[in-house]
Design goal:
Number of domains: 1
CATH superfamily: 5'-nuclease
Structural class: mainly alpha
Number of strands: 3
CATH class: Alpha Beta
Shape: globular
Strand content: 5-15%
Largest sheet: 3 strands, parallel
Length: 97
């Protein structure tokens, strides 16, 4: 069962990585960490980058959890729904230059 999402914001891996590396936008992400949601797919990307930068993933994970970041599972049913949603969107044509 999904947690209630009213008042929460969905963040992606790039937002959390900006926060973790104190990049532009980090302050904005910091203000919403306590109500942030992201999928386990995006969380996996964050942890890969954490490992690649020689940070301790256990420590980073604990810090994000303490800050209030909620990681939601991404199930096969979610993948089917996302795929169907994307299939319904017309393809974007490249602009001729």
């Amino acid at each position: 069962m999904m947690p209630p999402t009213a008042g929460f914001v969905v963040v992606d891996a790039l937002a959390l990585l900006a926060y973790l590396h104190d990049e532009p936008g980090a302050a904005v992400v910091d203000r919403m960490l306590d109500r942030s949601l992201l999928t386990s797919v995006n969380y996996s990307e964050v942890m890969q980058k954490v490992l690649a930068s020689s940070q301790d993933p256990v420590s980073v994970s604990a810090d994000l959890a303490l800050a209030g970041v909620t990681v939601l599972p991404f199930t096969p049913a979610d993948a089917l729904e996302a795929g169907a949603s994307l299939a319904a969107v017309p393809p974007v044509r490249a602009l001729a230059g």
